[in-house]
Predict the 3D structure of the following.
Amino acid sequence: AQSVSQHNHHVILSEAASLELGCNYSYGGTVNLFWYVQYPGQHLQLLLKYFSGDPLVKGIKGFEAEFIKSKFSFNLRKPSVQWSDTAEYFCAVSLVSGGYNKLIFGAGTRLAVHP
Amino acid sequence: GAVVSQHPSRVICKSGTSVKIECRSLDFQATTMFWYRQFPKKSLMLMATSNEGSKATYEQGVEKDKFLINHASLTLSTLTVTSAHPEDSSFYICSAKGGLAATYEQYFGPGTRLTVT
């Protein structure tokens, strides 16, 4: 079965530290990849997505992610985090199943940034 | 960006009763809506996919008679948890997209916290 793994469940960083959140998926076909963010008390929002082309994609708020097909990975990075980046981050893969595109989510990584 | 609302945000009901949760796309027409369930410290689990005017497609292991989904219009989908039991207590999230293709973004609602006593 298709799955998405996020290696870190909790990450604690100080402001200005660099961030990398791991994401691996298990699916042999063509995939579309996403990172979503959920700030405290808010709904899920799209951070960035990869469909095709340049495997290094840039998203909002200085985030980027790199698709490495050989490693089935789509890690999220930010060179310098801010306190406002405190949130939960979800990696997701879009698959076609039963004629519909559906998202398979990872378990999420809770990021806490201390001032 | 597009806005998706859910109502109610929280509901407490007694075991054996039914609860209806509404999901609305406020500023776009949602060809497809999705219902997810999120357990504490776990990922979002897709329950079903629905297209306007047609029957929902349920994921494996999701009881279609227990979780009734209606997508009556391009802006409204409802999830009814029938004969709720404490194990149905969870956070239910809907999302909506404006087209079938993967390139259409899914917009998520704020979620509904259901507690069955």
